[in-house]
Design brief:
By secondary structure, the protein is of the alpha/beta class. It has helices at about 20-25, 35-40, 55-60, 80-90, 100-110, 130-135, 150-160, 185-190, 230-240, 260-265, 280-290, 330-335, 360-370, and strands spanning about 1-10, 30, 50, 65-75, 95, 120, 140-145, 165-170, 180-185, 200-205, 250-255, 270-275, 300, 320, 345-350, 375, 380, 390-395. It folds into 3 domains: about 1-100, Tetrapyrrole methylase, N-terminal domain (Cobalt-precorrin-4 Transmethylase, domain 1, 3-Layer(aba) Sandwich); about 105-205, Methyltransferase, Cobalt-precorrin-4 Transmethylase, Domain 2; about 215-395, Rossmann fold (3-Layer(aba) Sandwich). It has 13 helices and 18 strands. The radius of gyration is 27 Å and the shape is elongated. The mean pLDDT is about 95.
Amino acid sequence: MKFYVIGISDAPRPFFPPEVLDMIRQGRIFSGGKRHYGLVAPYLPDGSTWIDITVPLDAVFKQYHDEVVVFASGDPLFFGFANTIKRKMPDAEIILYPTFNSLQTLAHRLVLPYHDMRIVSLTGRPWPELDRALIERANKIGVLTDREHTPAAIARRMLDYGYDNYTMHVGEHLGNPKKEHITTLTLEQAVEHDFDYPNCLILCGHTTTRPFGIPESEFALLNGREKMITKAPIRLLTLQAMELQQKSVLWDIGFCTGSVSIEARLQFPHLHVEAFEIRPECEALIHENSRRHGAPGINVHMGDFLEANIKDLPRPDAVFIGGHGGKLKEIMTKVLTVLTNDGIIVMNSVTSPMVHTDSHQLFNEACQELGLTQDQPTSIILNDNNPIEILKCRR
């Protein structure tokens, strides 16, 4: 199979260099979206075949044979159809004739250098990559939108989590001289603005610092009890024990105020975080604290973990058990049904005369019964608080 992939803009009369025009005249099988057909139909030779690119794509690829000329938007290697061809037909020969992608075009219109721009696609994709770019304090973010992830929806999410230090530049119908429009506005203005589709946007902001260890006094607390929250130094040591820089999915079981989930999200923005809690009053707390500290993207599950349906969730390679209600072995047994082969389980044990059940002993017994390998505990005393041991085991 051989593909000629031609990038075009939204211009009503596309410009093609002589080499591309000759190749089109000699073509017999053409493909692209319905919008592309409306733009290039006058250039197609008589008797040629057009194949619409629609889902399911497997049905489209079954129609391809010999040589196919494909029209795609912008640069076909920039979240484009050339990548789909490489994935579906890795042995196919591809010859590219790209044009500027939409974010390049918007940067050109703004006379904005874009070599340092972070690229995020929300076209048919969820929020995590935008969330990560925001948490990592990227100063310049180019965003590809869709009809759900609109400029207004993006601005609203950013404001909800405190990322109000950006200006938004939106380009509509880029490349179409009759419809193209560029707008620069604040996020507050963008929330109220309705933009035509297709569009894309560039966010420009100034550098802010990312905290390393959030003081417990800055969290909304359960019943106002500061002693119920994991202290910042203990929290950071706990994250270190889970080796999160090398992990992908964290489960926080018994999240309470959400401090561990939130700290993990801020320090390791690549993480996918699933947080579980049985106490209904904690649901509002984690949402409030996530917004207060700019930590979007934490998935919250309310109810008894032992009754939760976890089979469809991403498998964890790091688990923190913040509360167990005396059912530690049962919780660990359930965790082991999904924990990856290199997975780690961590919990904190407080040594106190007021605590009648020794969590350290329960942890030791569960590890022995379940065949888990324990690391040496880390013991710490913080100010005048009771001693805390950070317990860790692995498969």
